[in-house]
């Protein structure tokens, strides 16, 4: 028995159409499943909890949605040690990218789920909350705060507008970053604690991060001028920004960050700093190409 968890509104309706496709795929192969669609995130979480209670030895959970649905399902599947597969139907889909799947390989992902064994990968745990890809604080979190408060435009363009609003007034903040072996006290524009490689719909903020090395890649962007920021920013989509002298990347199993700032993980608001995150080896069973 599988749980098919669908966010019908993800990707501006892509979740609904892909959810229907996945259900048809499972039906055609006589695979038993139960559809879980909640009225909201809390309801969806409760329904998944009920399913896991009813079927503790289920085959796994298939989540059709974006990184927000990934974040929700991780909180339930990881403690229950249930395999989780993600069908990309959101606007960012960064966790699926990090796993190595093309966003168009829906049949390949589904066939892998049915015919291959899942693999163990690392997850981040920040103050009791699991995350798969990136935990971040700084400019990108401020942009997230602004974008979440906007009703227009829809989709990825919302973040472009939020950047245009926030960049002119943005100022670097002072951070205390405690790693396994040292503490960094610095002004910074952005800090990314990476289990996966990308966020924001393909921004390779930590292109060398690995999902099974037991360590975070921690990227610190030290202060640069706004003109220089606009020059460096496009390079993040190819991961070539890491050669810039203002970019520092270190590795650590545990990271604590203190500042007057907020943090986001997998695009979901974690809350005000201070925070402490730890990379947990082999926390999740999932499928990779």
From TrEMBL:
One Gene Ontology cellular component: plasma membrane
Matching Gene3D superfamilies: 2.60.200.40, Probable inorganic polyphosphate/atp-NAD kinase, domain 1
Keyword check for Acetylation: no
GO terms, molecular function: ATP binding; ATP-dependent diacylglycerol kinase activity
Ribosomal protein keyword on record: no
Keywords: ATP-binding, Kinase, Nucleotide-binding, Transferase
InterPro entries, alphabetized: ATP-NAD_kinase_N, Diacylglycerol_kinase_cat_dom, Lipid_Phosphate_FormReg, NAD/diacylglycerol_kinase_sf, YegS/DAGK_C
Cleavable signal peptide: none
Residue ranges annotated for the DAGKc domain, each copy included: 1-130
PANTHER family xrefs: LIPID KINASE YEGS, SPHINGOSINE KINASE
Protein name as catalogued: Unannotated protein
């Amino acid at each position: 028995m599988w749980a098919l968890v669908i966010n019908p509104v993800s990707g501006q309706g892509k979740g609904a159409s892909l959810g229907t496709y996945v259900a048809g795929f499972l039906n055609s192969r006589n695979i038993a499943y139960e559809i879980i669609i909640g009225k909201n995130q809390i309801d969806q979480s409760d329904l998944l909890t009920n399913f896991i209670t009813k079927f503790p030895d289920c085959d796994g959970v298939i989540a059709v949605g974006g990184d927000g649905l990934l974040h929700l399902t991780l909180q339930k599947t990881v403690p229950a040690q249930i395999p989780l597969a993600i069908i990309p139907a959101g606007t960012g889909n960064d966790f699926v990218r990090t796993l190595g799947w093309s966003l168009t390989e829906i049949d390949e992902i589904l066939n892998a789920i049915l015919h291959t064994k899942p693999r163990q990968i690392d997850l981040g745990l920040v103050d009791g909350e699991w995350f798969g890809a990136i935990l971040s604080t700084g400019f990108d979190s401020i942009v997230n705060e602004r974008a979440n408060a906007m009703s227009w435009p829809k989709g990825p363009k919302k973040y472009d507008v939020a950047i245009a609003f926030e960049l002119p007034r943005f100022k670097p903040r002072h951070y205390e970053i405690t790693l396994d072996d040292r503490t960094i006290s610095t002004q910074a524009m952005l800090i990314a604690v990476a289990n996966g490689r990308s966020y924001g719909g393909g921004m390779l903020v930590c292109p060398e991060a690995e999902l099974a090395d037991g360590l975070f890649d921690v990227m610190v962007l030290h202060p640069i001028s706004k003109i220089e920021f606009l020059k460096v920013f496009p390079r993040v989509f190819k991961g070539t920004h890491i050669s810039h002298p203002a970019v520092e990347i270190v590795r650590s199993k545990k990271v604590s960050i203190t500042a007057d700032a907020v943090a986001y993980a997998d695009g979901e608001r974690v809350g005000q700093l201070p925070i402490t995150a730890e990379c947990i080896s082999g926390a999740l069973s999932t499928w990779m190409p």
